[in-house]
């Protein structure tokens, strides 16, 4: 079973929209990979109240380091955090799927 990291733009989206996109990403990844995946929980619903964008990115990169595959949801190329995650996935040879 592969560990799946999901990179998605979240700015301006409700928790429900984010979670729906994540469910769709999991289904898509499993279909492409032909196997069930273990999802790495990178949606920080209990982040510190004063957390800044770089805090989220730092935490995400730690989780990305544990992934076998990274899935990039539509719009990733316009979101600065997602672009950095994508660059790291490329540079550190983590397999990638793009929606």
Automatic annotation (TrEMBL):
SUPFAM superfamilies to which the protein is assigned, alphabetical: N-(deoxy)ribosyltransferase-like
The name this protein goes by in its record: DUF4406 domain-containing protein
Biological source species: Blautia ammoniilytica
Organism ancestry: Bacteria, Bacillati, Bacillota, Clostridia, Lachnospirales
């Amino acid at each position: 079973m592969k560990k799946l990291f999901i990179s998605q733009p979240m700015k301006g989206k409700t928790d429900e929209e984010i979670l729906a996109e994540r469910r769709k990403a999991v289904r898509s990844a499993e279909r492409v990979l032909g196997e069930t995946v273990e999802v790495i929980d990178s949606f920080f619903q209990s982040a510190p109240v004063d957390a800044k964008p770089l805090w989220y990115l730092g935490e995400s990169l730690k989780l990305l380091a544990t992934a076998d595959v990274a899935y990039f949801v539509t719009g990733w190329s316009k979101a600065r955090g997602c672009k950095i995650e994508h660059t790291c996935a490329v540079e550190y040879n983590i397999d990638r799927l793009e929606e």
